[in-house]
Amino acid sequence: MKKKIDVMIVGAQKAGTTSLLRYLGEHPACKSHHQKEFAYFLTPKWYEQDYNNAYEKYFTNLSPKDTDLLLAKSATLYMSEEGISHLQSHNPACKIIFILRNPIDRAYSSYLMEKNAGTVNFEFDHIGEIIEQKSGWEYRIFIEFGIYFSQLKTIYKYFSTDQVKVIIYNDLKNDSLLLCKEIFTWLRIDNQFCPQTDIKHNTTFKNFSSVYSKTVSHFLNQNNPIRKLISTLIKSRNNYKYGNLLEQLNKSKKTFDGMNVKARIALSDFYKPYNLELSKIIDRDLSFWDEGKEQEI
Question: What does the alpha-carbon distance between residue 249 and residue 242 come to, in Å, rounded to a whole number?
């Protein structure tokens, strides 16, 4: 058996998980994958295979020592109880990091990501209609992904509270270095190391072309026959580099406008009771989530 995952960032989606993965992965006592996501526990076709196959794809070229902490990130794993259960079976001693972003702004950032990919065809000021539907993929990824108290309870079914580090996104945004040092202390590794926290990863910018976005998304789909053919010619652990390059070619440096007041009010009214329950679980006042808008989307 290859070395097991020691630390897993399980979410939340669009809450700075990629940046934190990169920062923590710079530590000499950590080894982390270069791909954006470690899909092994979340994807049945992966989990049904031997773990050594996933290790070969994500970590072999890193050559981690037994003393290194193996760090991975799957930004939507917190939404899958089956995936969390798989992780617990894989390593009951695994440490869990869960970043919580204001669910209002997380929803908008998720929407912008999907809009860039050409998968949504409604304007965000209609989000109230999605809330009322209480079903469908739009409700799940834009709304349900932000009901953190329920997801945290699921995590606590499989991992003890001292194994779970709950982080508020604002703390990551306001002082990333201080937060990283706090995590290093929690992981019992040198907390004097300073990663390059001035670099932001996976920031959402407008795409130049929606047609290009849809074409690339179709090409990168795992079931695309052309991609399957290319994957037989290129080592699978390097495929992500070419996908990232294709996506980056379409990125401008222009940011999106903020959400309108109508959408913010609808989301605020919906999330308030859930945020209150979350506050009780993590023993932290989250009322500031209702008071203002984050600057980064």
Answer: 11
- Domain 7-103+146-200+272-287, architecture per CATH: 3-Layer(aba) Sandwich (3.40)
Tokens of 253: 């440096």
What does pTM read for this prediction? 0.84
| pLDDT value of residue 228 | 45
Is omega for the bond preceding 12 within 30 degrees of 0, making it cis?
A: yes
pLDDT at 252: 53
CA angle, 152 then 285 then 95, to 5°: 35
Domain positions in the chain: 7-103+146-200+272-287
